[in-house]
Amino acid sequence: MRYLTLLAAGVMILTLCGTAGATLVSVGDPVEGGSWRQRFQEDGVGLFNHMQAKITSADKWETPGFRNPSVTGWTSTNNDTILVMNGPAVNVMQFDFYWKDPSPVTFVFQAWGLRNNVETLLEEATATNNPGYWLITGTSSGWQYQQPIPEPLTLLVVGSAVAGIGAYIRKRRLALA
To answer: What residues contact residue 112 under an 8 Å CB cut-off, 6+ apart?
Structure first.
C-alpha cells in the first residue's frame, strides 16, 4: 500500500508542476495593408526558444507569416496553415503575425522552451479576432507539431513506481509460499 501512496504522490507533484500561467496578448489593433497583421507579445513562461501557430479557421498565413520580432536572431518557416518560429531563448518578445483573409482568424499558439535539457510545451492558447477585440484563452488542443520527449524526472518517478510495485508483489508471493 505504501508503494501506491508514493506513486500517487509522484503523479500529483508532476501534475502540479505543469504549464505556468503564461500570457499571449495582442498589442494594438489589427492593421490592414493588402493582408492583415497583428502585433503580439509573449511573456510569463520563463525562457522560450520555439513558438508555433496553426490556423484553425478558413484563413491562411502570409509568407512569411511571422515578422518584426523584437529580439534579433529569430527565424520562421510556414505553409498556409502552420507557422514555426525559432530563436535564442528569451523571456519576453513582441512580434507580428500576418494572415491573408480579413474574416475573423482563429489560431492555436504554442510556446516551447528547454526544461532540464528537454524541449517542453510551456503554453498553449487559442486566439480569435472578433470585431473590435481578440479573445485569447488557454487551451489544450492536443495538437503537436513537435513531439516533446518526457523529462528525466518523469521517467524516474514512473520507473521507481513500477519497480516498487514489482518488489511489493514479489515480497507478497514469497511470504505466501
So the answer is: 48, 49, 50, 51, 52, 119, 120, 121, 122, 146, 148
- pLDDT tens across 96-142, in order? 999 987 778 889 898 888 888 888 888 888 888 877 788 888 866 55
Residue 34 pLDDT greater than 50, yes or no: yes
Q: Who's near 106: CB < 8 A, 6+ residues apart?
A: 55, 56, 57, 59, 126, 127, 128
For domain 20-149, give the CATH number. Answer: 2.60.40.2430
The CB-side HSE value for 98 (13 A sphere, CA atoms) comes to 16
What is the tens place of the pLDDT at every residue in 109-121?
988 888 888 888 8
In terms of Cα–Cα distance, which of 102, 104, 124, 122 is closest to 113? 122
Q: Which sign does the torsion angle of CA 119, 124, 127, 133 carry?
A: negative
Q: In what order do the strands lie in the sheet with 118-130?
A: 75-78, 82-90, 48-55, 106-115, 118-130, 133-138
The C-alpha cell of 13 is what? 507533484
Q: Name the grid cell of 143.
A: 495538437
- Give the distance from CA 62 to its chain's centroid: 22
pTM of the model: 0.65
Nearest CA to 79 out of 54, 96, 101, 49 is that of: 54
